[in-house]
Amino acid sequence: MLSYEVRAALDEGRAVVALESTLITHGLPAPDNLEVALGAEHDLRAGGAVPATIAVLSGELRVGLAQDELHLLAELGPDALKLSLRDLAPALASGSSGGTTVAATAWVAARAGIAVFATGGLGGVHLGARKTWDVSADLLALREAPVVVVCSGVKSILDVAATLEVLESASVTLAAYRCDSVPGFYVAATAHRAPWRFDSAEEVAAAYRAASALGLKGALVVANPPNPGLSPAEHDELMTEADRAATARSVSGKEVTPFLLAEIARLSHGRTLVLNKALVRANVRLAADIATALALPP
Ligand code: PSU
Ligand code: MN
After folding, report:
1. Coil, strand or helix: which one is 225?
2. pTM reported for the whole predicted model
3. Taking ligand 2, which is a single-atom ion, which protein residues have CB atoms under 5 Å away?
4. What is the CATH number of the domain that holds 75?
């Protein structure tokens, strides 16, 4: 399961950062997906951490991919499967290939002994969930994945308030990075105050060590605000339009998140795509610092 490089780094106590792959297969269009896949790995190495992109390739669970395997995933795009935690077992048993979501990646990273995981956005409670029950498995899976998850907060295409409540119910620790409110993925701040705030990678590392000492199983989510984000006016208009389009086309199930991401990118003439790529890279750099702080003696 582990690549030679990732295994050696873990054995030697060096910094390792896990990366998800649904972002590559379903979250970003080609060729931006490959640019981010390769760029994120490059950023991690530059920051002193070993990248461990996680995916399922021909029925094999892989932690740490070679460059040609990243190319393959990017080329497959949405022809690959989108694998949440519940999909891992049948995908492995049937010899399939797919990108792993935050839920699946966090689970696998935790079991592999990787403490830090970087991504763009988490899934959450969708607008209208009272009717559709569309609550991402990411939220529930993070309940049993003791890893630091560096992301850009909660997208307001989701029901932000409800997402924060579910994270609380799941005992997932949530902290904003160098700001007081929960970042909103496309915007730097939502109207919600974050339960905790960290101002350095060392503070994150200290909290993670305290959680480990207590034997806590929930994730520690570090929400890093996008810089720059969209203006609130532009943002609200885009979200309303995209939500309307999803409802009009009766998009459901695992297609909802990829549809909304693509629709928002289309409506913004690619501006959110630029933003999405930049925030992933920023999260990766912060994750490298956190993993480096964790690799040092406390
Ligand atoms: N948010 C993004 N980009 C993404 C995703 C979320 O901004 O690519 C992906 C992640 O892999 C996340 C998944 O785990 O979508 C959530 O899907 P769902 O909402 O169907 O649970
Ligand atoms: Mn869903």
Report:
1. coil
2. 0.97
3. 134
4. 3.40.1790.10
